[in-house]
Target: Trichome birefringence-like N-terminal domain-containing protein
Amino acid sequence: MMKSRETQDLNSITHLDFPKKAKNFNPLEPFLGVLGFILVTFLFIGCFFYFDYRAVHFRGVPWLGLVGGGSSPSLSAAPHAAVVQPPMVAVNVNGRTGFLDEGGDSCDVYDGNWVWDDDYPLYQSQDCPFVDDGFRCLENGRPDGFYTKWRWQPKGCDLPRFNARKMLEKLRNRRLAFIGDSIGRNQWESMLCMLASAIPNKKSIYEINGSPITKHKGFLVFRFEDYNCTIEYYRAPYLVVQGSSPRGSPKGVNMTLRLDRISWTHLMWKDADVLVFNTGHWWSYEKTVGHGCYFQEGTKVMMDMDILTAFRRSIETLMDFVVTRVNTNKTQVYFRSYAPVHFRGGTWKTGGHCHQLKLPDFGPLPNKTEKLVDIFSDVLSKQSIRMQVMNFMNVTPMTYRRQDGHTSLYHFGPGNGPGPLNHQDCSHWCLPGVPDSWNELLYVLFLKRESVRFTDKVQQNIL
Ligand SMILES: *[C@@H]1O[C@H](CO)[C@@H](O)[C@H](O)[C@H]1NC(C)=O
Ligand SMILES: *[C@@H]1O[C@H](CO)[C@@H](O)[C@H](O)[C@H]1NC(C)=O
Ligand SMILES: *[C@@H]1O[C@H](CO)[C@@H](O)[C@H](O)[C@H]1NC(C)=O
Ligand SMILES: *[C@@H]1O[C@H](CO)[C@@H](O)[C@H](O)[C@H]1NC(C)=O
Model:
């Protein structure tokens, strides 16, 4: 069993809104409708392209290849047929503004669609030594590689293609740190692979203490020698301190979450140049009060506090910490929102599954929003300084559509084959896969901020 305990724990989630709606929802129905619409649209557009065949090679058009044959895509396509090309072309197909161009600021990059792109994925897991065995789905026997082929396309603008060299150059002599739970780790490993794709000598990328990537507690710091930059991960599933209960606590209190104290790991990451936080999956009854972990503020253990209130307090603590203790003139701060799970027909413990989902959900988004995301937005908007220093990456809706991207049966490590049907992981994500898209957004937001910073500096020098 290659699967970590943390991975198993994370899957026992019961309190989430999205998947409930998803249960009664046949993902293919809306998809077929949309497919029909797209087919008609592209046949129409295809007439135009017919006169200039070269145009078909533009990005965004490969739908023609997918649907033009008149049959739905074969779900058993060989995964390794996926070829990584090194295209550095700008994406502008439809005359949309580039997000990094002037006027791109007003674009809501979280509002968009998943589009098929033959140039994806950005890397192959077998070329990247920095992926946990549990995330190597194709190597672990997943037969379909479609989930690696979707690119996120905002409605209002185009994103530049991820350029690892450019990112590394910007990160030269700097530190990028991810702080959060194992979904944050998922994203961190994705970033390592995306950046490592530009470095032929993978030996020049190493954990500074020699710790293996399989270490699931504490922290891991990978250094890219050629750029003197580090890409770091700190495990802090609640972001606040979890510790033993104070002396004299009521009976049944085994541990507490100290809602007014940011994780002790802050001593290590506070001065990094880019911080990417996430939390959410561990704020469940089962993982807290259900096994004797209550909430504490000051020295007081609050036996009656509900989880959502506790979550709100912890986010307030995070915001206050960032505003008062992080030098946000230097450090860019991001919070990546909750990534929905997609268990059907049960939970992790009761045989919930997602392995049959091979395509994104193109249907409407659920009516209900995710409570944890609402709470985060609310706490964020309470003070304008918070909105200035904290970049809220609301990836929840886009990620909700990616029911096809989970590790499902394919998290038992290369050579072990698919796991049992009743033991699926519909929380974590295959790599390459969905977390790459979060990182592509992080990339453009980071570059945007950098250019603003640069402009400020130039202006200061002129004045
Ligand atoms: C390497 O990067 C660190 C920050 O991560 C910085 O403090 C240090 O000065 C850099 N070293 C050189 C030689 O630039
Ligand atoms: C507290 O911990 C003890 C020992 O680990 C365990 O036996 C007990 O069930 C726990 N209490 C609760 C409420 O889970
Ligand atoms: C950050 O920049 C502002 C404005 O340029 C300045 O007033 C403030 O002192 C700076 N803070 C730190 C910690 O350098
Ligand atoms: C969505 O929510 C609105 C307002 O709460 C309600 O009027 C509408 O019926 C809901 N739609 C569905 C499909 O549940």
